[in-house]
């Protein structure tokens, strides 16, 4: 399995990830697609005397996807078109 990086619109990373996960299940591509990630870290801050925790994206505008390639080293056509057709 190899990781690939998808460039997406900022602040749309989670929506794209959810759409890809849904499409992988619908189209039965679990054998080709392993993980779809939006790397985040937990950040603590103080505002107005209150402690707040939030998730901050490590790479805004990017989604990481782990794929199984064909024997010739290419992304399978089914997976490629599924990714390209995702909003």
Please give a structural write-up:
It is a single chain. With 87 residues, this protein is α+β, with helices and mostly antiparallel strands. It is 26% helix and 38% strand. The chain contains 2 helices and 5 strands; from the N terminus they run βαββββα. The chain has a 3-stranded antiparallel β-sheet, covered by helices on one side. A two-stranded antiparallel ribbon has the order 3-4. The longest helix has 15 residues, at 13-27. The radius of gyration is 16 Å and the shape is elongated. It starts with a strand and ends with a helix.
Which secondary structure elements does this structure contain, and how are they paired or packed?
Layout: E1 2-7, H1 13-27, E2 33-37, E3 40-47, E4 50-57, E5 62-67, H2 77-84
Antiparallel strand pairs: 1-5, 2-5, 3-4
**Can you list the strand order of the major beta sheet?**
1-5-2
Q: What is Rg? A: 16 Å
Tally of helical segments: 2
What letter string, H or E per element, gives the SSE order?
EHEEEEH
Instruction: Report the end-to-end length measured between terminal Cα atoms.
Output: 24 Å
Q: Tell me the helix content.
A: 25-40%
Mean pLDDT: 91
Strand content: 35-45%
Shape category? elongated
Report the sheet with the most strands, covering strand number, pairing sense and barrel closure: 3 strands, antiparallel
Low-confidence stretches: none
């Amino acid at each position: 399995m190899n990781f690939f990086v998808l460039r997406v619109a900022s602040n749309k990373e989670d929506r794209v990830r959810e759409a890809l996960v849904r499409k992988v299940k619908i189209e039965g591509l679990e054998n080709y697609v392993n993980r779809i990630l939006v790397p985040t870290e937990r950040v603590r801050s103080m505002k107005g005397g209150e402690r707040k925790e939030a998730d901050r994206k490590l790479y805004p505008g990017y989604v990481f996807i782990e794929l199984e390639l064909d024997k010739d080293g290419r992304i399978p056509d089914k997976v490629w078109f599924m990714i390209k057709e995702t909003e």
